[in-house]
Write a structure and sequence with these properties.
Layout: H1 2-19, H2 27-34, H3 41-69
Length: 70
């Protein structure tokens, strides 16, 4: 069960990191202005930063658990 959660978190982190656009690009800001799903670009970026940080912490906690159990 824990390994399944670890795999899902790993895949989500890879997707989030690859989908992040550089600041010069207007990808996230144009998406946020066309559809009001994410709110303003700065709040969407803040949410993605928090979500990514939380995912990294979960990933490290599970990896530590696997290393301590083996």
């Amino acid at each position: 069960m824990l390994q399944l959660v670890w795999i899902i978190v790993s895949i989500l982190l890879i997707i989030i990191i690859f989908l992040r656009t550089p600041q010069e690009n207007v990808g996230l800001s144009s998406f946020a202005t066309k559809s009001d799903i994410l709110g303003s670009p700065s709040s969407a970026e803040r949410f993605l930063n928090i979500f990514t940080g939380f995912g990294i912490l979960i990933y490290f906690a599970i990896a530590l658990q696997f290393n301590l159990s083996s």
